[in-house]
Design a protein that fits this description.
Strand 9 and strand 10 form a beta hairpin. It contains 5 helices and 12 strands. The longest helix is centred in the C-terminal third of the chain and has 25 residues. It folds into 2 domains: 196 residues, Immunoglobulin-like (Sandwich), CATH 2.60.40.1930; 39 residues. It is of the alpha+beta class. The strands form 3 sheets. It has a 6-stranded mixed sheet.
Length: 250
């Protein structure tokens, strides 16, 4: 009896009965060229038992596609004496440049808030890491402002009924990337959840890169920022002079 109890405890501790996720994405590389209008990714995969068979129970599946993080400065504007001015601001040290989440059902029905915050499952649980001293109320206001702004640009979104599971084995979700999506390495992470606990996770990666004229301009701006600035100013002046001559002849 003691041996059987010890084996049961060992299984529980090692998670030997936890499922195995085999994830994939429809495109591992997205090339941004002139006229790029966005893309749609299919995140899919299999939920298997440790023996490689169909899972023995139903699992909730959550997929998160996240772009590279970057510092973001968010400013709040208020109307003072009839003029809109910046009155306060905060800096988020590690805001994702893109974030999309899809799940089999609402996150609050799958896990508690603490677990959702640990794994950043959903827009309300993003850990945006504001810098400096800021009171909780202001932090909440600025965080909601950033999420709302990125959402209107199509860069943050979530679909709490966006994952379908077939026969306890195959899962799939579609995620849209807007034309303004940034370049870099994206992480597509899949979570299997049972009884409020994340029991398995797996990662796939997607590279978004520019090509052609857009890449040449981006490389020029990144590697020779001073010359790029002079070029932009010179081009603006030249365009202004040409426009002036054209309209002067009319």
């Amino acid at each position: 009896m003691k041996v059987a109890a010890a084996l049961v405890a060992l299984v529980l501790l090692t998670g030997a009965e936890d499922p195995v996720l085999v994830p994939d994405v429809s495109q591992h590389e997205i090339v941004v060229r002139q006229g790029f209008t966005g893309a749609e990714l299919l995140l899919f995969g299999a939920i298997l038992s440790p023996e490689g068979k169909a899972a023995a129970q139903d699992y909730d599946i959550v997929v998160v596609l996240e772009g590279p993080t970057r510092p973001v400065v968010l400013r709040q504007k208020q109307k003072v004496a009839g003029v809109w001015i910046n009155t306060s601001s905060t800096t988020f040290q590690s805001a994702p440049s893109y974030y999309a989440m899809a799940s089999t059902r609402p996150i609050r029905d799958i896990v508690d808030d603490q677990t959702a915050a640990i794994y950043e499952l959903g827009l309300p649980f993003l850990q945006l890491s504001p810098t400096g001293a800021i009171d909780p109320a202001s932090q909440q206001r600025f965080s909601e402002g950033l999420v709302g702004l990125m959402g209107r640009q199509g860069l943050y979104h979530q679909d709490e009924h966006g994952v379908s599971v077939t026969s306890r084995v195959l899962y799939r979700a579609r995620v849209a990337l807007p034309s303004s999506v940034g370049t870099g390495s994206y992480t597509a992470e899949t979570f299997a959840i049972a009884h409020g606990r994340v029991v398995a996770s797996a990662i796939s990666r997607v590279e978004v890169r520019k090509a052609g004229f857009e890449r040449a301009i981006a490389d020029f701006a990144n590697h020779d920022s001073f010359l790029y600035g002079l070029f932009v100013v010179a081009a603006s002046v030249l365009m202004g002079l040409l426009a002036g001559r054209i309209f002067a002849r009319r």
